[in-house]
Design goal:
Pfam families: ATP-synt_ab (PF00006), ATP-synt_ab_C (PF00306), ATP-synt_ab_N (PF02874). This protein is an alpha/beta fold. The chain has 16 helices and 19 strands. The protein folds into three domains: 14-79, Elongation Factor Tu (Ef-tu), domain 3 (Beta Barrel); 82-364, P-loop containing nucleotide triphosphate hydrolases (Rossmann fold), CATH 3.40.50; 371-496, Up-down Bundle (Lysin), CATH 1.20.150.20. The strands form four sheets. Strands 8, 12, 13, 14, 15, 16, 17, 18 and 19 form a nine-stranded mixed beta sheet that branches. It has a six-stranded antiparallel β-barrel with strand order 1-2-5-4-3-6. The termini are far apart.
Amino acid sequence: MASPVYTPIIKRVGRVVEAHDGIVLIEGLPSVMVEEAFECENGVLGMCLGFDENSVKGILFDGWEKVTRGMEIRPLGRLLEIPVGEEFIGRVINPLGRPIDGKGEIRSADVRALSTRTMEYPALDVVERDVVEEPVVTGIKAVDALIPVGRGQRELILGDPKIGKTSIAIDAIISQGRSVHTGAGAMKCIFVVCGLKRVELTRIMEVLRSGGAMDYTTIVAATSSESASFQYISPYIGIALAEHFRDKGEDVLIVFDDLTKHAWAWRELSAMLERIPGREGYPGDVFYLHSRLLERVGRKKGGGSITALPIVQTQEGEISGYISTNTISITDGQIYLQSDIFNRGVRPAVNVGLSVSRVGGRAQHPVLRSLSKGLRLAIAQYEELMRVGGFEIEITEERKKELARLKTLYEIFMQKEKDPIELELQCILLFAAKEGYLSKASDTGTLQETAENLIATVRANFPDLKERVWSSHDLTPELNSEFTTILKSIFSAEQMR
């Protein structure tokens, strides 16, 4: 009788030497790779971030306070993974993919529908990328006309605290539900909350829900009350979910709010991991922290794209800060919100002179491109006049008319929050401003009211205008004539007087 053959089972197992504040020191692991996921014996997940001759240093996620000295650690032999799928649309999840909105577990009727994706994934090669040539309609007049964003672009939003950065991103998401048209499908949206307060997360959820945007949006949330490790991985989890939809040929808009707090979380983790600090206490790889994230954004050949709106915080309008300059150099343009403009009551408080879109110009819709020619210069001139103290005391009649025209064009870009405007309505509004239909309203101080009434009237009575604008390849004589006919009929009506 043959002797039985025993196959030894070899396991890589380590033990916790020290655990505190989401950081763990592990001994006994014979081999491990950087960013390899591991699991504690009580089910808490973590990730290796470094090692020395005798121990491995890692971070712990949800439930780290339950990890104690002597616990067994089992490496998983892979990077951190999260489940992805259509079932995540409309849900609020933490960075591990677990729902936190009180709506129960995320399950699929088809077990194959939910797959997994790793937190880190290689960015698209150059040969896999396509040019940015389709617009993202944010619904914000100042952005769509002056700083256009294209599908596959990375457009930074930066400015001081509490001046409307998050509001621009929220309006852009709400706008996707209003901008569906023939030729370009709706965009799925992902809002990554990193380091914001819980009350801010609640506000974002309420605004998106009231605007009907949660039907196509997922929120990945790591608030300021969560550990630094949760905040660190949240943007990478968000982009992994976006890549899942992109690889299915869909277009995705992702917001990172905000990357300044993300850098703070990485600085905190690096300090606890005893990494050598550099400028402003950040570790030497802080640029790579965001470059490897934002390089995963782009438009893929054959269909599918990811458009990113990262948000960065400045202090007292200083855009030359460390994180600000890093992200400016990584992205394809920036929307700069300025406190001085905000304090004058201008909403959104966009500084047109310091804002730019490096690749979105070719993606701007041709009708809007024709109507917005020369507007950047006009707005910048008016902002400069306001900055230096207004106008001359004695000016010619011709100069007065020119200043009145600049004032009308400047004020037409003012806009309330939570009210994104469709592309065709932006076009006819700009046409009305340039052709003088709004001059009287500007002189009497009723421009905003008149513009709102105009938009409401066109939206209610001329629904076919959307298809004609989207299908036009320029401001053709026929479209020009249609705009003129619509405006004459509206301004001759009693409600617009």
